[in-house]
Amino acid sequence: MNLQQIQTQLGCEVLAGGSLQGANIEHVCACDMMSDVLVVEKDNLLLVTSLTTEQVVRTADIVGAHGVLITNGKQPLEKAVQLAKQLNIPLLRTRLSTFEACVQIGKLLNL
Asked: What's the pLDDT tens digit per position in 35-44?
């Protein structure tokens, strides 16, 4: 599954970042505590969160996440959007709750 499929299925708005078709997503980390994300040791990761700060983008960069999905229709801070553009990290937004977004992504992953 790639970010383009997630964007289509969840009706996400693309706020920043690189190609949505290139990165293969195999794992999802849904978390609002970035310190917990830092210990995740998975490749091909999508970070799902309701946080809107630039620390989310920095954490995604550190763990090598292929993208960030912000939930609950929240608008990320402009600094976060600019950092995602600078680091070429796809930044998406959905109106779905974190739980609903994860359920939909799980269906895409056939979990």
From this structure: 999 999 999 9
